[in-house]
Amino acid sequence: MQLQLQYFLLLAAALFCIGIYGLITSRNAVRVLMSIELLLNAVNLNLMGFSNFIDPQEIKGQVFTVFVITVAAAEAAVGLAIVLSIYRNRDTVDMEQFNLLKW
Amino acid sequence: MNLAEGVQIVSFGILSVMMIGSALGVVLLTNIVYSAFLLGGVFISIAGLYILLNADFVAAAQVVIYVGAVNVLILFAIMLVNKREDFAPIANRWIRQGATALVCLGLFALLSTMVLATRWSVYTGPAVIGDSSVVQIGQHFFTDFLLPFELASVLLLMAMVGAIILARRDYIPDELMPQDTQAIAASTLPERPRELASAGNVTPKAR
């Protein structure tokens, strides 16, 4: 018995589904950002699995993972700044009350 | 990876149980501080899975960037918006949650059938004993991925400037500030204090 590619893909799929569930149902804006981090990590796990099992000579999947980590860090910084700014304006972090775009 | 196969399987099981459990805790717990710390657990176990996948550099980067930077940033944000508020209950919220859970389970079923039904063209050549992954990633960065690499640095700079601009407080010009509050604000930071911002009598636009 050996580690297979399918194990990692199934694990990443489970993490992705948990992240989507949290993204839709959570009401705290910070928790929504945490769910987005979970989604990005699931994608990273997929990329790393493909890189190790399908393309172990030129590990381009790892390069893509590093780029995804970079974009995730930038997204986290900007997203948390937006949450902070909305919190100052609306005095709440409830996602249900962020209806600034509704007319 | 030089570990025996049994050791690999056992550590994969432990890490995956840790990861799924912590991810469920991130999503389902009501206290958001616990969620933030469990998110660190998710990142750590994913770094362990990367080590199982022969990727030492990315595992180290995962620990440094996610656990060291992103998780700390999220904890700071929780600290800054630390307001224990009970969200107003919404009618028929359980329908929403149930529908979302159903959709997520369906998506997982779809993805797992796809994963198990596809014949992956797994590399079966001779075992790769080349450079370490650090050397190879560095060669990729400075030859065929040079332009995305530089663009990523520009993106990080833009994100830094944007985060500072979004999160800083607005300045109030002196001529717009009422006289009695100016005496208070003179001894404090040259920013708009919260009580002045929420007073509502004079809310000048700073920019």
Give the topology.
The complex is a heterodimer of chains A (103) and B (207).
Chain A: H1 5-25, H2 29-53, H3 60-90
Helix pairs in contact in A: 1-2, 2-3
Chain B: H1 5-28, H2 32-52, H3 56-80, H4 93-117, H5 133-142, H6 146-167, H7 179-186, H8 194-199
Helix pairs in contact in B: 1-2, 2-3
Question: Can you tell me about this structure?
Answer:
The complex is a heterodimer of chains A (103) and B (207). Chain A has 103 residues and is an all-alpha fold. Chain A has three helices and no strands. The longest helix of chain A is centred in the C-terminal third of the chain and has 31 residues, at 60-90. Chain B has helices at 5-28, 32-52, 56-80, 93-117, 133-142, 146-167, 179-186, 194-199. Chain B is extended, with a radius of gyration of 25 Å. Residues 200-207 of chain B have low confidence and may be disordered. Helices cover 68% and strands 0% of the residues of chain B. In chain B, helix 2 runs antiparallel to helix 3. Chains A and B meet through helix 1, helix 2 and helix 3 of A and helix 1, helix 2, helix 3, helix 4 and helix 5 of B.
Question: Which overall shape of chain B is indicated by the principal axes computed on the Cα atoms?
Answer: extended
* Overall body shape of chain A: elongated
Give the SSE string of chain A. HHH
Beta percentage of chain B is under 5%
Gyration radius of chain B, rounded: 25 Å
Greatest interface (CB-CB under 8 A), with counts per chain:
A-B, 76 and 84 residues
Kindly state the number of beta strands of chain B: 0
Report the biggest beta sheet of chain A as strand number plus sense, adding barrel if it closes: none
Number of strands of chain A: 0
Number of helices of chain A: 3
The structural class of chain B is: mainly alpha
Question: Uncertain runs of chain B with pLDDT below 50, 5 residues or more?
Answer: 200-207
The residue fraction in helices of chain A comes out at over 70%
Major β-sheet profile of chain B:
none
